Amino acid sequence: MNIVILSKGRANYSTRRLKEEAISRGHEVRILNYARCYVTIERSNPVVRYEGKEVTDVDVVIPRIAASLTKYGSSIVRQFEMQNVFTTASSIAIVRSRDKLRSMQLFAKAGVGIPKTVFAREASDLDDVLDQVGGAPVIIKVARGTHGNGVVLAETRKAAKAVMQAFYVEGVNFLVQEFIAESAGTDIRALVVNGKVVASIQRQSLDDDFRANTHQGGVGKTVKLTDEERKTAQKAAKAMGLAVCGVDMMRSERGPLVLEVNSSASLKTPELVTGRNVAGAILDYIEQNAKGKRRRDRVGA
Ligand SMILES: Nc1ncnc2c1ncn2[C@@H]1O[C@H](COP(=O)(O)OP(=O)(O)O)[C@@H](O)[C@H]1O
Ligand SMILES: [Mg+2]
Questions:
Q1: Is the N or the C terminus of the chain less surrounded, counting Cβ atoms within 10 Å?
Q2: pTM for the full model?
């Protein structure tokens, strides 16, 4: 098959592994920097162009879209969808998963455990907002943050109100969340491919940061999931409409609580730490599904 990896970094571990795995199975692979792709739109002729040429004969795209370029990157993916090209992540699911509020609403509806979350606009009833999530300490996070940036732990009611007021003034949408003290500084990432967990790691912050993101200096180690955790990861992936993704969860006294689902989860730590062939699992999924009928997105939000 002719596979296109949409990625800004051809030296990036995940991009390299996907390419290597695809080539070893006899596929043709092109890596296109989606930030430099452009599309021409006219009646019945959806075209993607790159370096002055039309991109043709594509069977599969593997989007690796950075959070900072969600809108542009997903529109390139959408253009391939307009050509009926198979994608490992639909444009609509990428956009959906990048919105923390929308994700929380969908997880809750699907019966996935989440930290109790409040979304509010006016600064009228900050005390009730805080009471709803059990009072301070609370987590306040901007609706579109990534890599742990924009996630704040407010230790006191006073600090929480100050942070919320600052966000209101700046017009930033944010969520207020119950602080899961039991697992502060650690979280679990489960990589789900085609409805199955193929690798899982536990991430631990190195200093006393409550955020476990490896971008904040956290480290990963292999972890065995409970049945409940595995089912939760599968359910969360399904709720987002993503066949390939990384599900972030925290262990709590009332079971696993999902924080977010990443449509372009890194393969690096999960592969290196667990020894699992995640890229191989993604290629298996492609080989089994790319030729069949396109699955429609059924999430509905
Ligand atoms: N409700 C919470 N309680 C305790 N820790 C949290 C909570 N929400 C997030 N964290 C910590 O902060 C990190 C980043 O939060 P997350 O929602 O995943 O945002 P990002 O998209 O920036 O990674 C998590 O990996 C976790 O370690
Ligand atoms: Mg995260």
A1: C
A2: 0.96
What is the distance in A from the centroid of ligand 1 to the CA of 148?
7
If one counts the domains in the chain, the total is 3
Q: Does one domain contain both 147 and 69?
A: no
Asked if 77 contacts 62 with a C-beta cutoff of 8 angstroms, the reply is no
203 and 246, same domain (yes or no): yes
Query: Best mutation site among 139, 147, 151 for ligand 1, i.e. most ligand atoms within 8 A of its Cβ?
Result: 151
Domain that holds residue 146: 116-179
pLDDT digits (tens, 9 = 90+) for 245-298: 999 999 999 999 999 999 999 999 999 999 999 999 999 999 999 998 888 899
- What φ, ψ does residue 138 adopt, rounded to 5°? -130, 160
